[in-house]
Design a protein that fits this description.
Oligomer: single chain
Order of helices and strands: HEHHHEHHHEHHHHH
Keywords: Cell membrane, G-protein coupled receptor, Membrane, Olfaction, Receptor, Sensory transduction, Transducer, Transmembrane, Transmembrane helix
Subcellular location: Cell membrane
Number of strands: 3
CATH superfamily: Rhodopsin 7-helix transmembrane proteins
GO molecular function: G protein-coupled receptor activity; olfactory receptor activity
Structural class: mainly alpha
Main location: membrane
Protein name: Olfactory receptor
CATH topology: Rhopdopsin 7-helix transmembrane proteins
Length: 319
Amino acid sequence: MEKANWSSPVAGFILLGLSDHPRLEKMFFVLILLMYLVILLGNGVLILVTILDSRLHTPMYFFLGNLSFLDICYTTSSVPLVLDGFLTPRKTISFSACAVQMFLSFTMGATECVLLGMMAFDRYVAICNPLRYPVVMSKAAYVPMAVSSWAIGGTASVVHTSLTIQLPFCGNNVINHLACEILAVLRLACVDISINVISMRVANVILLGVPVLFISISYVFIIATILRIPSAEGRRKAFSTCSAHFTVVVIFYGTLFFMYRKPKSKDTLGDNKEDLSDKLIPLFYGVVTPMLNPIIYSLRNKDVKSAVRNLMSQKCFTR
């Protein structure tokens, strides 16, 4: 191959999606579309009630509103592209649009990792130091905590997206994936990607390892405090204040670790080859988890259910 072709730029990418499984495309189109609508409705309602109901103007619900907004942004950054790909075999996406999609997806995923850690600290203070909670978790504290979560996620995304789009792809522009995921794009590079791999590992430690460690330590203290409560009713009430967050953490990180620890399939030539599960597991992580978050918080939280009922009754009364 001539050097000119070896270093030729890529103007756009082709997303294979589920083109190898045409019978599944229509079924997943309907399924993912319904899930996306549930995500928009559920998280949108949570954002509304946390803004409109004064009883929910607390740090926990401020973080919950951020989480709901983040889930809407995360799914919107990829789901419309995935749905379009189900209807358009071998969907073509421009290089710049692919870069934007990578940036947004990585930003939202990284931000959620950090934000869940911030929410764990909020629950730790509420249960382990309830008398100091209004002082420790004042507005001057929890607003910068949320802003820093977005800043950390955005900064990490800028670094990794910049490192990725600077790579030469040598004319290889077929992404065997549902969307422009950074790991899938990196496989197309025709140069050494050691710097990218090292930076991803550092990001995994900072954005995954540190929050998981922080959340784990927080819940050790939370559980120890709950077990010291003498009455069963007191223990139940204390646990109910953090059970929704704990459930969301288990689903989010459980799916994330399973997705990245699962060995990628290989073909006989040793080249990376995505099988069906390699594509559907990230889809589960990107759609099912944001769909479950508002359901979990609504079912396990009397304040949220009451606020939703009040919002619905006001809508019905105005009509």
